[in-house]
Amino acid sequence: MEKKKLKNVFIQGAISSDFIGTSIAKHQSKTSIGAHNIFLGQVRADTIDGKIVTAIDYTAYEEMANQKFHDIREATFDKFDLTCMHIYHSLGTVKAGEICLFVFVSSPKRKVVFKALEYVVEAIKADVPVFGKEIFEDQTHQWKENS
Questions:
Q1: Domains and CATH numbers, the chain
Q2: What is the DSSP string of 96-118?
Q3: pLDDT, the chain, mean
Q4: Nearest CA among 90, 82, 99, 88 for reference residue 37
């Protein structure tokens, strides 16, 4: 796979099911693909100190984050036999139950997509400077800690 140029992975607000469905449909003509795997990160309505999270407000150092996403993408292509990969992350407010991260990997072989997807998602969580402020039902907020 040819190395790709730096791309903006950010989408304002939640990632819609229509966007996800369209992304999947676009791959039906790529007949060298034998398997896809998808990760959808969804905002949870966690209860923290007796308060329920109703949304997360995502911010990022966009230029740095896009470079990190690019580096992760290139490292994944170097490590795994993938046909293509797409990463999208929300910025702004995403309500509980809505999608904030969409990672889509494709390969000629099924076993590859499982390993590659886990590698990508773990690298994103560890290395990309995206920050979430949890918003509670009483409109108070706190910075989210990744686990």
A1: 10-138 (3.90.1170.40)
A2: TTSEEEEEEEEESSHHHHHHHHH
A3: 93
A4: 82
Give, to the nearest 10 degrees, the angle between helix 110-127 and helix 62-79.
150
Residue 4: the pLDDT is 62
Taking a C-beta distance cutoff of 8 angstroms, is the pair 120, 68 a contact? Answer: no
Can you give the pTM of this predicted structure? Answer: 0.92
**Residue of 83, 82, 124 lying closest to 102 (CA atoms):** 124
Tens of pLDDT, residue by residue over 37-52, are 999 999 999 999 999 9
Q: What is the per-residue DSSP string for 129-147? A: -EEEEEEETTS-EEEPPP-
Residues 100, 103, 109, CA angle at the centre, nearest 5°? Answer: 160
- Residue 60 to residue 71: CA distance in whole angstroms: 16
Q: In the block, which residue shows the tokens 């099911």?
A: 17
N-to-C CA span, the chain = 32
